[in-house]
Design goal:
It is a single chain. The chain has about 260 residues and is mainly α. It has one domain. The protein has nine helices and no strands. It is globular, with a radius of gyration of 23 Å. The mean pLDDT is about 80. InterPro entries: At3g05675-like (IPR038920).
């Protein structure tokens, strides 16, 4: 059943037709991801295109929006593994802020599925996924905060610059950027993404955790995601492990 809150079901099926429906959904998702791969592959050859202009960016946003909607369907059908294995291997590029937010939304759902154990991935892929999306999420959150600050600053200055057409145009542009930054995302999405990344990091082998946390501490935008909880857990476990190793070495030496 696909439904949102108390809305009427969009799709219902009994146990007998469940496999057939899921097979159809899987085929559609595979087709969408194949088209997305073909599109991104061809887009890489168009180096003269500006990152945030023209039909290329519109087509990219359309693809990402479709994948974001598919996430909702897959989550309700417990089929996120159809997307997760593909998405964790993606390498996000310098999309416009509106598109970046859609990518964040998809990544949050995928990483939550991995963190909750609904999708099982090898440690190497989990380590790669968190490294990629920590950096992307941090940069995107920074851009959102900048857009919000720019909108507030321009709003404060409007009263004294109403006669300046250029200033009004800049204020309108900043307001549009801030509005785009808030489309489709709220605090729960950011919090869910941060919690999922933290959970995944704590399940990695100790050496992998150390590498991820070191990259996070040295990153330019370490304020988000906040991995302090994962860092504290790693420090505690490392301290306990060293104590146990020291005890075993002492015991072996005494014997």
């Amino acid at each position: 059943m696909l439904t949102e809150d108390d809305d009427a079901p969009l799709l219902t099926f009994d146990a007998g037709s469940s496999d057939a429906v899921k097979s159809q959904v899987k085929g559609c998702v595979t087709g969408l991801l194949n088209r997305f791969s073909d599109f991104t592959g061809s887009a890489l050859t168009k180096q003269t295109e500006a990152p945030c202009s023209g039909e290329l960016q519109q087509a990219l946003h359309s693809f990402v929006s479709d994948i974001a909607w598919v996430c909702q369907v897959l989550g309700k059908l417990e089929m996120m593994k159809c997307l997760a294995a593909y998405w964790v291997e993606c390498h996000p590029g310098p999309e416009c802020l509106k598109t970046r937010l859609k990518v964040v939304e998809i990544s949050a759902k995928v990483l939550e599925a991995v963190a909750f154990g609904n999708v099982v991935l090898p440690a190497e892929k989990r380590r790669h996924a968190v490294s990629v999306w920590i950096a992307f999420a941090g940069t995107t959150r920074h851009l959102v905060d900048e857009a919000d600050r720019g909108s507030n600053d321009d709003g404060d200055d409007d009263g004294g610059n109403n006669g300046d057409g250029g200033t009004e145009a800049e204020a309108a542009s900043a307001s549009a950027a801030a509005a785009a930054a808030k489309v489709g995302l709220d605090g729960e999405v950011w919090q869910g993404l941060e919690s999922a990344i933290t959970s995944i990091v704590t399940t990695l082998p100790s050496n992998a955790q150390a590498e991820v946390l070191s990259e996070w501490l040295q990153s330019e935008h370490a304020a988000f995601p906040d991995l302090s909880e994962a860092f504290d857990a790693w420090c505690y476990r490392s301290k306990v492990a060293r104590r146990r190793l020291s005890f075993l070495n002492s015991a072996n030496a005494a014997s």
